Amino acid sequence: MNQAPSSLGSPVVRREGRDKVTGAARYAAEHTPPGCLYGRPVPATIARGRVTALGADEVRAMPGVRAVLTHADAPALKEPDDPALAVLQDDRVPHRGWYVALVVADTLEEACAGAEALRISYETAPHDVLLTGEHPGLYTPETVNGGYPAVRERGAAARAFAAAPVRIDATYTIGPLHNHPMEPHATTAWWSDDGHLTVHDSSQGSTTVRDGLAAAFGLRPQQVTAVSEHVGGGFGCKGTPRPQAVLAAMAARHTGRPVKVALPRRQLAAVVGHRAPTVQRVRLGAEDDGTLVSVVHEVVTHTSTVKEFVEQAAVPSRVMYGSTHSRTAHRVAALDVPSPSWMRAPGEAPGMYALESAMDELASALGMDPVELRLRNDVVDEPDSGAPFSSRGLVACLEEGAARFGWRDRDPRPAVREEGPLLIGTGVASATYPVYMMPSSASAHAAPDGSYRIGVNATDIGTGARTVLAQIAATALGTPVANVRIDIGSSALPDASLAGGSSGTGSWGWAVHKASTALLRRLGERTGPLPAGGLTVHADTGRELSEESPYARHAFGAHFAEVAVDSRTGETRVRRMLGVFAAGRILNPRTARSQFIGGMTMGIGMALTEASGLDPAFGDFTESDLASYHVPVSADVPRIEAHWIDEDDPHLNPMGSKGIGEIGIVGAAAAVGNAVRHATGVRLRGLPLTPDTLLPYLV
């Protein structure tokens, strides 16, 4: 067999790019089987209570309406794995926006008209949607998201803090945030005569969708096929099945016709998850030379009454810097709010904003350079577990970033650099994100014509998964990348984990590498031509990933930002931003840079523009569309650069790669916030830093 040079590390153009820009890529809502009906969900308009009456009969008589499903006549579900999927099963309303009906019609317009006309009566109950740091309902959960213990303590953190010569005690707040992917959640579903359910669903993992729908409808997983071939973003909110998948399957079973349900953007805020608000108190105690002796990071957040989800915002403080004494803890209140869920870098994004802001405050109190403070508190072993890091490139990221950014040339004094009415400042923050890998399986097929075909139920949510997996397979097989076809995005393919936690490439790639290597070995053992049907092998990584690694495995990074704050208006503009990352072997520089920059852009939004307010009277999110929920656009990020260091880590996977989808957002908001403080001399501890919050301190 002719050996080809390794394609890993090459900037291969993403395979689906042309299909996307020409419209050939088909998304979940673009599959329209013959006889397809359209469903429009109806959200509750009260904050808590129950439904007492619905005018369903009047709507059923409207033109084109085929069904109105309510709790009185919707198909009964088995107990879903996720309680948020138990829609139309009873008359309760646990929060505003909870679905209470589904109108199904011949056209989308007729379904919308029916949903608008549906008259609903409620019995309301008192509600509580506002989180405070002293909420009477706060409790300590056993674990937080990711299965981490809610509380971890080393030494006597409070006593060490009280005795430290230099201390920072600050509380940082971040309100609710929403993912808002470009493609809204959508599902097209139909049942075959033999009871098989097929869904095209906008999700981050069709294996998870298949299993969730099978559990909800009392089916075997083999009786469900879930397809997520092209997905227009997710950022966490498509990580598990959402209500539209259940509603579409319900309506298809009820009507005997295919049904399409695409959620309008204004409904997304209440039903597909959000980043929960956090109130974070950080206490740092240090010696006069900047050595940390005590780190205390205590988090208050909310969950819903439907299910418990606790943002693990204090967990990064268990990893980042050394200190003899530490306490990290979480408390949560179950409020009458929609269920929070994952949003890009859950835990790390809000947690590192608080920690890295506090580190900047500590540097100011010490009169020390913020980069030097971080370098001085670097560690060899993970502080919380004591396990050695498989690799830790934080120092290299900080040093290279400082050199590239020109950090050493800055005047450290705050509020001294002016350009007319503009106040100019620079800030820095570190970043970390854990390496997650999940068991996955893959198939590798060799055809008689010399081509190869890889099958794995990965999901490409815009990351370029098809391209990188083809590079992994081609390298293992010793063939040009163009000679490898990749089939992904269907539960009919070998099972694989979802695209979340920056785990996709490492998890799927390991399975692809293992299958490709096994196929190459089998081919080497053969004599003579392949049979007409070719040769296929299967592999999975369950055995490898059942063994716990003795290493603490994390990606690291450093962000540097320069901002201009208009002293007349309070408007903040990011002039330039640099991220330098240590994330193992970079498998494709083109797609990697896109991921890093995308994360950094979301961090800018977190710092300056994004916010979702909870209306205390009505219990709903006031920013529920892209006109009011402000995400950064191209004009907001005029100069943003991403670089990385070469990191050889043999303790990860056969490719030596770490996840890169989320490390870019971690720390980015803190770098911007620290730059604003340097520009203005004003330390604000709540995000976003909008003009109305800054202006009172500038006039």
Strands, helices and their partners?
Elements: H1 17-22, E1 37-43, E2 49-54, H2 56-60, E3 65-69, E4 92-93, E5 99-105, H3 108-117, E6 120-124, E7 143-144, E8 148-149, E9 151-154, H4 157-163, E10 166-174, E11 186-191, E12 197-201, H5 206-217, E13 224-227, H6 243-255, E14 259-262, H7 265-271, E15 278-286, E16 292-304, E17 325-335, H8 348-366, H9 370-376, H10 394-405, E18 418-419, E19 422-434, E20 441-446, E21 452-455, H11 465-477, E22 484-487, H12 504-525, E23 535-540, H13 542-545, E24 554-566, E25 572-582, H14 589-608, E26 640-644, H15 668-680, E27 686-687, H16 691-694
Parallel strand pairs: 1-14, 10-27, 12-13, 16-17, 21-22, 25-26
Antiparallel strand pairs: 1-5, 2-4, 2-6, 3-5, 7-8, 9-17, 10-15, 11-12, 11-14, 15-16, 18-19, 19-24, 20-21, 20-23, 24-25
